Amino acid sequence: MDVDMESQDTRDIASRIVTPGSVITNDTAFMRGHGTFAERTTIYSSVAGAVERINKLVSVRPLKQRYSGEIGDIIVGRITEVASKRWRVDVNSRQDGILLLSSINLPGGIQRRKSESDELQMRTFFAEGDLVFAEVQSYFADGALSLHTRSLQYGKLRNGTFVTVFPQLVPRSRSHFHTLPCGVDIVLGVNGYIWVSKHVPASKVEENSELIYSDKNEFISDDERETIARIANCIHLLNRLYVKITDTSIIFAYEASLTHAVKDLLTREIAIDLAHNVKTRLEQQS
Amino acid sequence: MSRQELISPEGLRVDGRRANELRRISCRASVLNSADGSAYYEQGNTKVLVAVYGPREPRNRSLAQQDHATINVEFNIAPFSTSERRKRSKGDKRLLEISSFVKQTFEGAIQTAIYPRSQIDIYIHLLQHDGGTLETCINAATLALVDAGISMMDYVCACTAGFIDETPILDLNFVEESSIEVPNLTVAIMPRNGNIALLQMESKLHSSKLEDVMELAVEGCKHIHRKLDQAVLVAAKDLADKLSN
Amino acid sequence: MVVEIEPSNIEREFLLEALEKGIRVDGRGIYDYRTLKITCSPTYGLVEVQLGQTRVLARVTCEVTRPFPDRPTEGLVQFNADLSNLAAPGLDSSSGKPSVQEVAVSRMIERVIRQSRAIDTEALCILAGEKVWSVRLDLHFLDHSGNLIDAASIASIAALRHFRRPDVTIDGEEAIIHDVNERNPVPLSIHHTPICVTFGFFGSNGDLMLVDPNLLEEQVQVSSFTITLNSHREICALSKAGGVPLAPSLIQRCTQIALTKVDDINDKIQEALMA
Amino acid sequence: MAETKVVLPGDIIDTSLDSDEEESSVLRLGPGVAQIDEQVSAVAAGVLHSDNEKKQWWVVSNKRRYVPAEGEPVVGVVVARHGEGYRVDIGSAQGALLPLLAFEGATKRNKPNLAVGTVVYARVAVANSVMDPEIECYNSHTGKSEGYGELAGGFMFKCSLGLARRLIDSKAPVLNALGSGIPFEVAVGLNGRVWINTEAPATTVLIANAIKNSEFLDAKQCRQMVKELLEKQ
């Protein structure tokens, strides 16, 4: 629904790049959103970025900003501290997220009730430094994210390697857990944390739910390790050259990278060439 | 000590500039990829590198404030920054003073209330020192903070000014700054309303001359504001192009 | 660690409400200093200053040392400000690093005395390149009840003018330092007497202004500004860091007010030194 | 009452009562007095007081650090809000706990909502050396607030405990003298904090300074000082 009285002032507001302190509009009809502040009737920008206008709401989306969570986001986090009945999780955001003991799956199936003893052996579930695959369920009063892992695909991550990318490059999509044709599982956290690991058939996980918090990696053969490393380097080069990171772009990059040795993928020329290749295939596809 | 001729009869200063000329400024945002925001800033021969991390979880949570972010500034001078190598100790009062000035200046400029219980770290490293240390640190830190996408009321632009032989001079270099006769005034303003965020002055200046020297410094700040703005726009467009195609 | 307790909301609101009517909590006018008491002790160079309840002790001592190689004919001037938690509960010096306030005060005094060349360092030379006097000023803060900088600057200048160093005669390469009761000691040659005047600003954009803030006012102010002037109407230092940005016109107004304040403080120091 | 006798820490106090009761009667030792190996001696410097009927001995000293005692009215500042109550600073070693329900008419649903930094007038409910002190903003027996609760507006200042104790008794000369001149509200906390409220800030400042100056004046001098202040106003 576009606002009918499209005055000249509103048309040139959108998609302009503004910097802190610059005037966006002094038309009192507008409401101010994120990235702006108002003094008397004028709306100023408080960040450098592109102006976005949705009907009456004017906001500025900074191009570079730390990840700020949305409810329902699928993310990867690292446990930083074990506190009473909760874990603090680094989620690459402004504050650590919180994973409550009551919002995780307990080993031994769904029907197991939370007991006092669980509170005492918290570290058998998650310990400091563990990586967790979780979903944002709500906010706390001060803006910290509250996470949960109450579905079988979520939980502790193992058998793989960790990659950090710009959060803006990971678009929100239906599912963030993919098994690539080359036999590698990847988890694309919306907060820019990505996990690349050996493929574990889903059926094996449900069998013995005792193992969902085990810390032991399974056996990983050499060529599985090489594929994991190749995928990780592909993600690095996509990130460095600002290509959107999705399962399709990673697959394209993987296929294009097969002619090079894994370690060469990080050299500048090869990275640029591969990224260009991926971009053209993505444009053809869309 | 022979009284060094700071302004030649023709009105030229030791480095060939006129009285109201700024040193050449070149600056770039997003120079480090591990930091949330970063900037490299050169003003004449003074070169400084700033990295900004945050807002993020404070290292020691007892300092976290309930309703706003805390700002932590660490400033150090590279031992190779001046001609004779000098390693400054951690408790050097001059370093602590500059970091506390930068911290207080940005406490007024950053909208800390938006990021409760978090911490913003500003790490400043002076690579080469040719006068105007505080001024370049503030300008570089502004650029890095804007690059990090942290909400600010406005840029903070700083500039120095002095007074030799009855004429106000703009942007002092090391020779002018360290000579004892020349008063050395540093002012940092918020360009939008011209208010003064920081004002520091050393050695002597007659009270009647203060107004002219400050006006010249404020002019310098406005010019620096344009330079910083350009650097931000260049970095923003460059990033926007990369992300879009 | 003892955390300094914030003033309560009603103290904050009351202070602002009273300030709008030009009234201060301790009954002073907005441009009045607190009662200033300067006591010079019999030993030279030891002065205690009481500004309201803020108390500072300044001690000047001298010794003979070698000059810096690049300045053979100039004596040395050294400063040390010790702001331990003797003065106020909130100060925490256990972390080794000097507290922010201690850095601010000692750097300010150093700037006021050294950068403005208050002391004639050439007159401290005994034998060029070999022996010079090194004058050392130590400040000890006994009680912190607001505005340490003004009290410290008054104490420093009074102590430096009250100080006498032993007399020296030179014949050829030899320098004889006469004992105090042999020849009466000689004062330092002081060019000018810089005095700090500190302003506090209140209200959302800092338009309410007052002079010499006490502890409560210091905790509630949104910005502060210190200007240092000498009796020749020259500005020796300016310091405004952080807090709400101020309009340039406010700075000019402060300069005019400070000029009048400096004269009566100088008279008070003069009286104390005469007594 | 024995004539005022100043004792220093360590002085032995002879508790032989001038009345003829036998020696072994139970003595109640108040603050500042303790029994050290069967002898009763002073542990604080100050004026010794005794009360023969209740056989009580205590020392009144002009200290500044407040030690909470049950039933004493105090003026506190809210420092933090926890789940079940507020942490209130009353100038004692530990911060006092003010439960959410310790207000007149407070129920599970309508709890008082005090911001950090609010000033409250409260009564010490629990005070012993083991637990953190607890205060309440109503009289727990009658359930009425009896003047306790949030103190809005006005001004608060600190004074010594001795002055606070003298101000609390209704015949305090300086308060009566001021009261005849200016209408004002006052809340005196035995923890050395006094709250004043009048319509105009000028009068509040005048009263606050008058009270502070009255510490070392006797009744006549107080009235004289107050008269001068009122005329000068």
Automatic annotation (TrEMBL), chain A:
GO CC annotations, alphabetized: cytoplasmic exosome (RNase complex); nuclear exosome (RNase complex)
Keyword Transmembrane assigned: no
Chief site of localization: nucleus
Organism, as annotated: Coemansia spiralis
Molecular function per GO: RNA binding
Presence of the UniProt keyword Mitochondrion in the record: no
Subcellular location: Nucleus
Protein name: Exosome complex component rrp4
Residue ranges constituting the S1 motif domain according to the UniProt record: 70-150
Top-level taxonomic group: Eukaryota
Record GO biological process: CUT catabolic process; exonucleolytic trimming to generate mature 3'-end of 5.8S rRNA from tricistronic rRNA transcript (SSU-rRNA, 5.8S rRNA, LSU-rRNA); nuclear mRNA surveillance; nuclear polyadenylation-dependent rRNA catabolic process; poly(A)-dependent snoRNA 3'-end processing; TRAMP-dependent tRNA surveillance pathway; U4 snRNA 3'-end processing
InterPro entries, per database record: Exosome_cplx_N_dom, Exosome_RNA_bind1/RRP40/RRP4, KH_dom_type_1, KH_dom_type_1_sf, NA-bd_OB-fold, S1_domain, S1_RRP4
PANTHER family, per the entry: EXOSOME COMPLEX COMPONENT RRP4, PNAS-3 RELATED
Lineage: Eukaryota, Fungi, Fungi incertae sedis, Zoopagomycota, Kickxellomycotina
Family to which this protein belongs: Belongs to the RRP4 family.
UniProt entry keywords in alphabetical sequence: Exosome, Nucleus, RNA-binding, rRNA processing
Automatic annotation (TrEMBL), chain B:
Keyword terms: Cytoplasm, Exosome
InterPro entries to which the protein is assigned, alphabetical: ExoRNase_PH_dom1 (IPR001247), ExoRNase_PH_dom2 (IPR015847), ExoRNase_PH_dom2_sf (IPR036345), PNPase/RNase_PH_dom_sf (IPR027408), Ribosomal_Su5_D2-typ_SF (IPR020568), RNase_PH (IPR050080)
Subcellular location: Cytoplasm; Nucleus, Nucleolus
Keyword match Ribosomal protein: no
MF term (GO), any: RNA binding
Alphabetized CDD domains for the sequence: RNase_PH_RRP41 (cd11370)
Transmembrane segments: none
Keyword match RNA-binding: no
Any one Gene Ontology BP term: poly(A)-dependent snoRNA 3'-end processing
Record-annotated Exoribonuclease phosphorolytic domain positions: 21-150, 154-220
GO cellular component, one term: cytoplasmic exosome (RNase complex)
Gene3D superfamilies: GHMP Kinase, N-terminal domain
Family matches, as Pfam families: RNase_PH (PF01138), RNase_PH_C (PF03725)
Family of this protein: Belongs to the RNase PH family.
Assembly notes: Component of the RNA exosome complex. Specifically part of the catalytically inactive RNA exosome core complex (Exo-9) which may associate with the catalytic subunits RRP6 and DIS3 in cytoplasmic- and nuclear-specific RNA exosome complex forms. Exo-9 is formed by a hexameric base ring of RNase PH domain-containing subunits and a cap ring consisting of CSL4, RRP4 and RRP40.
Protein name, as recorded: Ribosomal RNA-processing protein 41
Source organism of this protein record: Coemansia spiralis
Organism classification: Eukaryota, Fungi, Fungi incertae sedis, Zoopagomycota, Kickxellomycotina
Gene: SKI6
Automatic annotation (TrEMBL), chain C:
InterPro entries to which the protein is assigned, alphabetical: ExoRNase_PH_dom1, ExoRNase_PH_dom2, ExoRNase_PH_dom2_sf, Exosome_comp_Rrp42_subfam, PNPase/RNase_PH_dom_sf, Ribosomal_Su5_D2-typ_SF, Rrp45
Gene Ontology molecular functions: mRNA 3'-UTR AU-rich region binding
Alphabetically ordered keywords of this record: Cytoplasm, Exosome, Nucleus, RNA-binding, rRNA processing
Tree of life domain: Eukaryota
Domain spans labelled Exoribonuclease phosphorolytic: 33-166, 192-259
Subcellular location: Cytoplasm; Nucleus, Nucleolus
GO biological process, any: nuclear polyadenylation-dependent rRNA catabolic process
CC annotations in GO: cytoplasmic exosome (RNase complex); nuclear exosome (RNase complex); nucleolus
Family indicated by similarity: Belongs to the RNase PH family.
UniProt protein name: Exosome complex component RRP45
Organism: Coemansia spiralis
Name of the gene encoding the protein in the UniProt record: RRP45
TrEMBL record, chain D:
Record bears the keyword Kinase: no
Any Pfam family the entry gives: Rrp40_N
GO biological process, alphabetically ordered: CUT catabolic process; exonucleolytic trimming to generate mature 3'-end of 5.8S rRNA from tricistronic rRNA transcript (SSU-rRNA, 5.8S rRNA, LSU-rRNA); nuclear polyadenylation-dependent rRNA catabolic process; poly(A)-dependent snoRNA 3'-end processing; regulation of gene expression; TRAMP-dependent tRNA surveillance pathway; U4 snRNA 3'-end processing
Domain Exosome complex exonuclease Rrp40 N-terminal: 27-65
Gene3D superfamilies per record: 2.40.50.100, K Homology domain, type 1, Nucleic acid-binding proteins
Domain of life: Eukaryota
Xref: InterPro entries: Exosome_RNA_bind1/RRP40/RRP4, KH_dom_type_1, KH_dom_type_1_sf, NA-bd_OB-fold, RRP40_KH-I, Rrp40_N_euk, Rrp40_S1
Keywords, alphabetical: Cytoplasm, Exosome, Nucleus, RNA-binding, rRNA processing
Cellular component annotations (GO), alphabetically ordered: cytoplasmic exosome (RNase complex); nuclear exosome (RNase complex); nucleolus
Compartment(s) of residence: Cytoplasm; Nucleus, Nucleolus
Ranges for domain K Homology: 154-201
Main location: cytoplasm
GO molecular function, one term: RNA binding
Family: Belongs to the RRP40 family.
Record-given protein name: Ribosomal RNA-processing protein 40
Organism: Coemansia spiralis
